[in-house]
Automatic annotation (TrEMBL), chain A:
SUPFAM superfamilies in the record: ATPase domain of HSP90 chaperone/DNA topoisomerase II/histidine kinase, CheW-like, Histidine-containing phosphotransfer domain, HPT domain, Homodimeric domain of signal transducing histidine kinase
Record-linked PROSITE patterns: CHEW (PS50851), HIS_KIN (PS50109), HPT (PS50894)
Domain Histidine kinase: 172-420
Domain CheW-like: 422-571
Function: Involved in the transmission of sensory signals from the chemoreceptors to the flagellar motors. CheA is autophosphorylated; it can transfer its phosphate group to either CheB or CheY.
Catalytic activity: ATP + protein L-histidine = ADP + protein N-phospho-L-histidine
Keywords from the UniProt entry: ATP-binding, Chemotaxis, Kinase, Nucleotide-binding, Phosphoprotein, Transferase, Two-component regulatory system
Annotated positions of the Phosphohistidine modification: 48
Chain ranges of the HPt domain: 1-105
UniProt-recorded name of the protein: Chemotaxis protein CheA
TrEMBL record, chain B:
InterPro entries per the UniProt record, alphabetical: CheW (IPR039315), CheW-like_dom_sf (IPR036061), CheW-lke_dom (IPR002545)
Record Gene3D superfamilies: CheA-289, Domain 4, SH3 Domains
The name this protein goes by in its record: Purine-binding chemotaxis protein CheW
Any Pfam family: CheW
UniProt-listed PANTHER family: CHEMOTAXIS PROTEIN CHEW (PTHR22617:SF23), CHEMOTAXIS SENSOR HISTIDINE KINASE-RELATED (PTHR22617)
Superkingdom, natural source: Bacteria
Residue ranges annotated for the CheW-like domain, each copy included: 16-158
Lineage: Bacteria, Pseudomonadati, Bacteroidota, Cytophagia, Cytophagales
Organism listed in the record: Chryseolinea lacunae
Amino acid sequence: MKNKEEEYKEIFLAEAMSNFEEINRVLTQLEKTPGDKNTVHALFRITHTLKGNAAGMGFTGIAEMAHVLEDLFGEVRDGRISLDENMFASVFKGVDTLGNLVNAVKDNSEVKYKGIKTKLDVLLKRAKEDSKNTSHTVQESFQSFHAEAEVESDDSNAPETSATPELNNQVSFSDLVQVPVRKLDNLLNLVGELIIEKDRILAAQAGKGLRSNEYARLSRISSDLQYSVMDVRLVQVGFLFNKFHRVVRDAATSEKKNVMLKLEGTETEIDRNVLQVISDSMIHLIRNCVGHGIEEPEERIAAGKPKDGVITLSARSETDAVHIEISDDGRGLNYERIKQKAIAKKLITAEDAEKLTREDLSMLIFEPGFSTMETVTSIAGRGVGMDVVKRMLDSIGGTIRVASSEGQGTVMLLTMPSSMAVKASLLFELEREVYAIPLAYTESVISLYKSDIHMAGGGLVATHLGKNFAVVFLKDIFRSPSDTAAQSANTLQNTFAKIHPEEKLEIVIVSFNNRKVGIVVDKLLQQKEIVEKPLMRPVDKVKFISGVTILGSGNVCLVMNIPHLLNFIFGFSAGNKAARNFTLN
Amino acid sequence: MSDVKTSEAPAKAQRTLQIVVFKLGQEEYGLQIDQIKEVVITPTITRMPQTPPYIKGVANIRGNVIAIFDLEERFNLTRTQKEGNKYTLVVESEDVKLGLLVSEVPNTISVNPSDLDESVSIINDASTESNYIKGIIKSRDRLIILIDIFKVIDYEMSESIKKTVGAS
């Protein structure tokens, strides 16, 4: 296997080659339909991307060349340069040189590019000088005409190069193959099937009492295959992070702030689908950093900080989780404001607010409709978003934590699975059906007697290792229709009331976001790595179940959606509380 | 003889309709053959929480986990046999795939399009307001109710969306 450096180079090359081909295609199109804004925009965008990538990889030649082309297309886009035949010749030559530079990366050969670059620079400079003299419109048109004439003369001075056609005769192939994600998904699905089938065979063999190492090779190969396919789906977070330079720049410009973006750990790998899911959330968080976190330059100077705010994105992987940290050196969270806002919005009561720790207060910003910003700006302050971020992370089994110190900045830590495919899970039985809980949510498994559990108000509580936690019977939850408004006070005690006093109960303690609940199940089965599949229509609306997996027996096992379950349980008790308050008033 | 004629004539004039016929309650229902993927022996069904009673649960059919519907229960028909749902009719459209429980192996018949009466307006009670009945087929002395299964499903889904919106 090649080292990382080589791998990046390959990826860069593949991308650069496709950029180059795209430029050629679009440029040809532009030549046919000059003045088409969209094509110019496309050219600008592609060269910009290429420039960024090349600069990131340290290929200065490509970056410089792409930069000058980008500027040129920028001027064309803004109408300061109009492309005519001769201009096109120069631009094409420039693009070809760019292609040569890209190819040269492969075999480390030298390509001369200064000549054409200087020429394009000259063209650009002229155009810029023109644009300065825009006070008289009549003169402007004359000037541009004049400039064009000059360009022409400049071009005729330059010796025509015969290199261009030769270059185009060569067709180069990239060592990388681009594969649609859809195909990869399908492949992973098939591997999942294979694993399930393998499990089925192994289960059948174990039943017959044959030696299980008969199938050791099958097991090994299938698990190797699974990890290889998962590996193919991994991409570097850098691909996403690099896109944020622009996000930060745009947000900072519109807020009139000076912000720098620092990236760390860009080579950390994560499943492409996870990356896709979090990309919108990340944009949101970063914009929030610029909008809420970083102060105005004057304020920063007054606070004795450097004028430019710094946002740092850093990623690191840990066993099967990836942590992404978004930190800024801005003003930090204003806990007093959060408190007041939360009370004003009736999210918490004034007494509760005093008891909350800073961490609890930080979590309030993820409540729907919460925003401490007084004014609504274009990028932040609308009070939507943070709850969306939270929900997005919930959906993939990720978490978010916020730490902040006033005046020094805020750190947001996102933890998410590096792969969505395989989950270690705990299987249990409930009313003869098998369910799975991802181990990421299980805290411990205990068994208690009925006498250990106590009724507290409308719910149930138990104590384990000196800690109290709520207990619910999963049966009761599944039975209570989610949409009935009239919840009798002790729906959650139904099963509890019925069971025999000496019965021993199997309890799985699950936790999510510092909320802990013990759920009572019928029987605990085993721990197993499962390949979770999404629910298909029309049952995809079932919120308690996040997906399914197929067991060795061929039967379907439902995977519990713990975040939703906990939200439901706490929403349920909050609903009861609200109802009580209502009657009291 | 007249039967032979009717089955021959459309072959030349217009295409015959291929209908898969199965029994629900006391009546015969039909689906157009292109909506049906296969007929399998009903696998083990895993019940699912938060679903209406006519969704029996989900089952693994050739590696695909699909929802299993009981149309008798959906249409509030008298049950044929309690334990009789031995076969599952797998229906598939572009975006949804599901199984329908049937008590016996469905048979396929070819009908003349002119035997399909699409103009019948069936009077439904208001709660099941949806036009999933495409028409009535009169074939010899049989009466087959042709349904569009995906209309049934669409209706379910819009209902469940309403519910979730109402709940939140």
